[in-house]
Amino acid sequence: MTRKIIFTSTFFLIFFILYCFNAKGDVFSVHLFYDSNKKALFFDNESEENVSLDKEEDISIVEYAIDNSTGAYIIKLYDISGNVFSQNEFNPKVGKFDYKMPYFSVAEKMEIFEKSTNKKILETNLSNYLTCNGNGTCEFEKGENIDSCIGDCASSNVKFSQETKKILDKNNGILKDEKTGATLLKGNIAKEQVTNENVQSSSGKMWSIILIVVMSLIVISVVYFIIRKKIIKK
Amino acid sequence: MKNRVLGFKIIIFLAIVFFAGAIFEFSFPVYAQNTYDYIQLESIPGFEDSGSDLKSYIESVYKFGIWTVGIAAVLMITIGGFMYLTSAGNTSKMDVAKKVVTDAIIGLVVALGAYLILYVINPDLIKINISMEQLGTSSGTGVGTTVPSATSSKTCSDGKCSQIDSAVANNAYGVDAATLKSILVAGEGCNKSLSTDGYGSCGYSQALPKIRAWCGITGSNSETCSKVQNDVQLDVNCAAKLIKSNAGRCGTEINQVASCYNSGKPNNCSNTTSNYCGRVNSYYATCN
Hints:
Number of strands of chain B: 0
Distance between the termini of chain A: 15 Å
Oligomer: heterodimer
Helix content of chain A: 25-40%
Radius of gyration of chain A: 24 Å
Structural class of chain A: alpha+beta
CATH architecture of the largest domain in chain A: Sandwich
């Protein structure tokens, strides 16, 4: 029995480690609650935040962008200047549910409207997650970088804030993400080569594969020994 | 006793086969020059609409296996439960019943383990990417061709749409220049005008307004359109970001890249407009 517990714990431990190790993707989750009796939509009171930034399976931005399905509610996203840049319709699920959408670094505010009445029913501030203000200056200290804010950090004529310039100077004009190797800032985009990114990315993939093989062998061995012990016992 | 040992050996063998199969079959894609679709003589029950290529067929077989294991496990647990209920205090019968339930659970965990672990690590690991060379074909159209994950020496210097060449070669995401140019020139038509279909696509990338915002370009739809129209580097970088973000989800064959850029789905070439993938494939094949 003890061995079975050890086996089960090992399995779930491995599962947990791998889960933590390989979280990916940025997705906005809007935590909602639909009361079917009152036919009313609310933010879920039990969630700490109305909207959270989850790292899980990616949602395709292309599919989200071309999605023209209709529904009872309209969800709108606004940038810092108050422009609506995203508008999608959806139907609620009864009770608690999450509405998922890709992460938008320019999102400053979200509003939900009832389609039939065109009345705004929910609103929440997303400025905690805003990492691209679109002011024409690349400000790394405010979370802007090549990935999050092409408009400010990867156009043909990038202007850097003083702090960002200092960071770039310290890093010889190029700043890379220590974990992924992805380029975050470039002093001069036009002259940069990104071959190192490829090398680091393939090395990461190789480690993942080695990890899978090792973990699988551990699991197989555990199963094998448990079963073997059982046979000897008999 | 001998039969029991044999049974355990079979279980261990099956577990190893499952793990090895999952790891080697699903993790290591095999690429060749052309894809090969075939007509199924017999489809897998429950997966009749899964597609006609080998990849889909193997996926169906695996999923069918998982379903079978799941159903068998439920059945065995039920039988074990029934045996336990009807053991009437007979300890040997109770032990047998417990063993049946335990073995069913272990079998289920082992069978699902490979899939679950690989899926949690990265959902792409369970996407099979097999292309078989088609007998009797000569020059390729680029279908099945794997594109480099970063800038390579392959260029498309045919003079077409040369105004984007510099921006493409120096894109901020290190996306392979030939791939990027093939999408922008052959797929999107080297046209930076606002699309007339009402969707608001704009720039050489023909990115939709939501995609321009996702790229980190702020402003109203018309403002972001002007921004990409007036800044080729910005425009091309947005396209490059999209291709790069799709790479993990959609695969690395040129037709998958094209399909994903156009529809967000990797194997949707047949549903893309005006032979989108075919145009990109053909153009990519001319790059050297």
